[in-house]
Please model this.
Amino acid sequence: MRIHTPERVEGDGWTRLQARIETDSGASLPESLWFDVSTGFDVSTGSDGSTGSDGSEKGDEARDTPARAEAFAAGLLPVAMALDEPLRLDGPLSPRLAHGLRSWSHAVATWWPERFRVVPIEPAGYAAAPLPPAPGVASCFSGGVDSFYTLWRHRPPREEIPEARITHALLIHGFDKDTDAEDFRRLCDAYRPVVAELGADVLRVRTNLREFRLPILGRHGLVQSFGPFLAACAHAASDRIGRLYIAGHASYAHADLFPSGSHAVLDSLLGAENLEVFHDGAECGRSDKVRALIDVPAARDALRVCVLPPTFDEATGSVRNCCRCGKCVRTMLTLDLYDDLADWTAFPLPLERRHVWTQESISRSSRRSLGSAMRHARSVGRADRVLDLRIALWWNRVLTPLRELRKRVS
Model:
């Protein structure tokens, strides 16, 4: 796979980084990979770009330097590994990122050898970005429990280190859900006042990287390699941000740290000299994060955990959850065990026992969350929910072999 020399194109409200892509196998993929980064108002600086050391706008300073290849290398390495093709770059690559990607590739090839193979990374040379790290601090933000918790955790005064305080919530169009352009615009409009209440601004990135990943990796491969996707979008915005938090979905408990596309061991390998990447929030489990968000009023009308495309309250424009998919039911159940569900307008439908019984918990982490919820239900004396969760666990033990049989037959 060859990544041609990237170029930067300025548009109306967006800066595009793009590069032509060729594969050795002639795979049917788009001709170019691109990242669009919004250039809107920045609440952390009161300007359209952060100020450089000489008093100039850092956005202008960055535009005067050649476009870099880090975003393309991070985003396309899993695709090159799945195609078993060397990743060749016409331009230079950060030596720190090159070293990190090499280590990352060995880890995922060990975890999933049937899909990923270690391939050479061959840039035209090694050179750090010419500009120092930007002062902005971003956190990938989906509106879910993990990303809301990370945004809350790093707001002042809770975050005592000024350089660690989040200034931008990074919203990505083209990540893992089939969200059209209008829905993405509505999501950004809905979340802008919410994240502003937590002291940050919305930073938008849109990309066609999914069009390279999905045909080659499949949906399972997307899940197994989404950390580099998030880091790639941050590298594309590195003239605005110098630190990225990737909100973790698992705790540091040994049993929780199973192989995953974003991982406490691997995410920090995805940074460069001008962009630090941190895996965040693994000091507590999902139930503890939900408990923390009870004290965050902004989350009550804006939390979005649903696996379905976004829906909105037509009167207020706020996001709404379906209240019936597995992620919705598990989150509602946790809030119910804390006796707080009724006050969450993001979940407009009631939680009925039959929905707990029949929820699908396909992934390993979701099945573990059922066991965690059962322990929580016992600790608060909710015998009814203990019974509901026993039924749910039994239901999924029956369903899982049937799903595997169906896969083999099909």
